[in-house]
Amino acid sequence: MNFRVIILLLLTTPVFAQQKASVSNLRKVVEVLASDSLKGRAYKSEEIKLAREYIIENFQKVGLKPYGNSFEHKVSWHEQLDGNQEVTNIVGYIEGSDAKLKDEFLVIGAHYDHVGYTADGDTVIYNGADDNASGVSGIIELARLLLSNNQRPARSILIVAFDAEEVGLVGSTKFVKNSPIPLDKIKAMMSVDMIGRADLINGVIFSGIGSLKGITISPSLFSSEKNREVKLVKSPSSMVFRTDTGPFFRKNIPALYIDTGLKGFYHKPEDDANTLDYEGMAFVVDNLKKLVEVIAEQPNVTFHNPIPTVALGFTFGGGLNHFRLTSGGVDNKSTLTFNAGISSLIQLGKRSAIQSDVLLKAKTSRSAIGNIIMPSIFVPVHFMLISPYNSSRGFFGIGPYYSYSFQRYVSGDKMPMASKDKNDYGLSVMVGGIGMNNQVALRCCYGFKRMMEDQPRMHYRSVELSFTKFLRY
Ligand SMILES: [Zn+2]
Predict the structure, then answer these.
(1) What's the pLDDT tens digit per position in 333-378?
(2) How many angstroms separate the alpha carbon of residue 154 from the centre of ligand 1?
(3) In this structure, what CATH number is given to the domain that contains residue 355?
(4) Distance 158 CA to ligand 1 centre (A)
(5) What is the CATH number for 249?
(6) Same domain for 256 and 375?
(7) How far apart are CA 132 and CA 130, in angstroms?
(8) pTM check: above 0.85
(9) Between the CA of residue 349 and those of 325, 346, 453, what are the distances in Å?
């Protein structure tokens, strides 16, 4: 290579190098944040202050401006057990290039805290390289790329390193509560949380694209490499509430999360800087930049709740049944029973729904004359109160049930039934928990109708545990 070519390369390389994420920049920030000396960056620790200083230094270095007087946005809050607390989010600002759109913002966040260390016996440090030194390093590099472009993004961008994610999304929750800009000006939020293991999933997942109303993000926007691609996922999973997107999503702000999954050393002491795929991180950041630029220039960005309002599922359960004699005679004893069927859940509002099931079940009881089995169809309809959107939600449901029994067997022998006796109705109550797709419920039924006309007052009772798997809930 002659001297002139070398000079030419030296002159031109930096210009081109600015356009692509730098593997060495990404590695360097992770190595510092995930070094043993920062002792796992626990919330409120002395070491997290050092992490903070280092992040601010890097925000300045890449040309980010503070939003307001300082990079540090402090919010005090009161924690029931520990009294007065403070979180410090680090906020950097890129002014939008479009005269009109620059009053609107995209928030790109990554939490910088981790879980610290344990010191009983040997000290074990949880360095949190993937979780989430990788994300912080990613947003710093992203900011550098956005600022070194000839043209900044159309909308303004806040690059935010969130505090106190690991203790329950506190930094992002407080940010939303005390937002430096009106929430209706935040058009979308992206959480970059764990992007260091592209090697384990052959690329990166951009989830929650469906929360952008009417905007189509085409897969062709993104680059792909051998063994690396961008996977677009429309519906958010429960992850949307397990990272800093949660508080934004609950405020109806389009929320996307960018990650390479949990297959690495998630919350393990092995999550160290030398285990990350830095080439993969560069791939993530380059493609994230494309995503940010496209969203930033859309004329209208509004929220669409991608969690389906109608869900269908399969359910099965079992428990105890008996036909209770409320007056006279020897009371029946409980016996085991099982049921299976289909369920539908219609979301009415954020906190209410109607769930109806069609179950095949054996109504059973042990009586003085033998075991009674009544194969039945069982249809409860519950009005449900559900706790607010979260990765898991508690609920309470109440409503009527109707059941029709096809036959009655006593000790294995068919016993004729009056057609009146085939019908039964009563009250059903259930309590339980629901994740994005799975529901576990304790159900109790209380029959109102006399089960057999020729018997003194005998009513159906049951206590059952059921499991329901919803498809695309
Ligand atoms: Zn995390």
Answers:
(1) 899 999 999 999 998 877 899 999 999 999 998 988 889 899 999 9
(2) 29
(3) 2.40.160.20
(4) 19
(5) 3.40.630.10
(6) no
(7) 5
(8) no
(9) 41, 9, 42
